[in-house]
């Protein structure tokens, strides 16, 4: 097959109920653009019938290719594996759950053709719970402040990248990363557009509360040392406050005398300081843990076999 103009990258994990509907909508959209394209799926160790469906698609649809992992390595590793196999000038990332409509893809392609090397998206009228909306808003604001990046919606994976951005990403060998933020560091002319958002039609979200917290830790500690700097500043301020409080207690003891009544107040203050110290140890441990993962140099993922790449 000739070199495609657009590559669509789709990670899939236990998406048996969505894959056929996805292809029924995605293929007409891509063929309607009049441009050559490829669709690269990565099966991230699915335990349902997703792999079987994807293999059938790779056999019957010339544009479909499938990367089969031998286990579950996570959404971002699945996308990175597909990036290394794509050859299009424009690369689109899309989730398989149909919450981001495939019909929005031509809008992203048009923005790249205008000269933008990264096209981010903002989900309009999000069909998520209030908790997830509020949590996402807090994460977006906090991450922008800590990393210095300007992204309105970190959680939307419907994005477009130019070939140059993907080549730079492929040169990175980080074991934990956040692809939209990583691409932003290489971008010279990014933009954002609004896209539609729909409810998940089948299955459930693969991101539990723990995984969301874990992902946000990767995002903040992987692209900034501001958390460490803020904690150092907090330590300085706490130390100054502790010295001032000690002077206050000493003066009070000379003026009033010994007081037993304040012992519980002192315990409360002590526990507060201990909490700060434990938080700091955990924060430093997060950075040390990332270093530990990098120096082990273990494979980021393991590909069992490829389907459809021989076409």
From TrEMBL:
Membrane-spanning residues: 230-251, 263-288
Name of the featured protein: Glycosyltransferase
GO molecular function: undecaprenyl-phosphate 4-deoxy-4-formamido-L-arabinose transferase activity
Domain Glycosyltransferase 2-like, residue spans: 7-167
Domain of life: Bacteria
This protein's GO CC annotations: plasma membrane
GO biological process terms, semicolon-separated: lipopolysaccharide biosynthetic process
Keywords: Cell membrane, Glycosyltransferase, Lipopolysaccharide biosynthesis, Membrane, Transferase, Transmembrane, Transmembrane helix
């Amino acid at each position: 097959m000739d070199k495609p103009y657009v590559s669509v990258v789709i990670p899939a994990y236990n998406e048996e109920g969505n894959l056929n509907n996805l292809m029924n909508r995605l293929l007409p959209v891509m063929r309607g653009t009049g441009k050559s394209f490829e669709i690269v799926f990565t099966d991230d160790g699915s335990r349902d019938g997703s792999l079987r469906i994807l293999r059938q698609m790779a056999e019957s649809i010339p544009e479909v290719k499938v990367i089969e992992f031998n286990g579950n390595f996570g959404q971002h590793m699945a996308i990175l594996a597909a990036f290394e196999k794509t050859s299009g000038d424009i690369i689109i990332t899309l989730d398989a759950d149909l919450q981001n409509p495939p019909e929005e893809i031509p809008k992203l392609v048009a923005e790249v053709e205008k000269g933008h090397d990264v096209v981010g998206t903002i989900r309009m009228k999000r069909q998520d719970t209030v908790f997830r909306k509020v949590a996402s808003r807090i994460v977006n604001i906090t991450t922008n402040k800590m990393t210095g990046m300007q992204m309105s919606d970190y959680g939307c994976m419907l994005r477009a990248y130019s070939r140059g951005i993907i080549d730079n990403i492929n040169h990175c060998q980080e074991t934990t990363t956040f692809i939209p933020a990583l691409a932003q560091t290489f971008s010279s002319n990014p933009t954002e557009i609004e896209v539609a958002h729909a409810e998940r039609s089948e299955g459930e979200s693969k991101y539990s509360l723990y995984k969301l917290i874990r992902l946000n830790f990767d995002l903040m500690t992987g692209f900034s040392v501001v958390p460490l700097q803020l904690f150092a500043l907090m330590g300085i301020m706490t130390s100054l406050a502790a010295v001032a409080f000690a002077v206050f207690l000493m003066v009070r003891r000379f003026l009033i005398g010994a007081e037993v009544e304040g012992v519980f107040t002192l315990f409360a203050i002590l526990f507060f300081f201990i909490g700060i110290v434990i938080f700091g140890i955990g924060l430093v441990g997060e950075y040390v843990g990332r270093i530990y993962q990098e120096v082990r140099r273990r494979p980021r993922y393991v590909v069992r076999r490829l389907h459809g790449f021989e076409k």
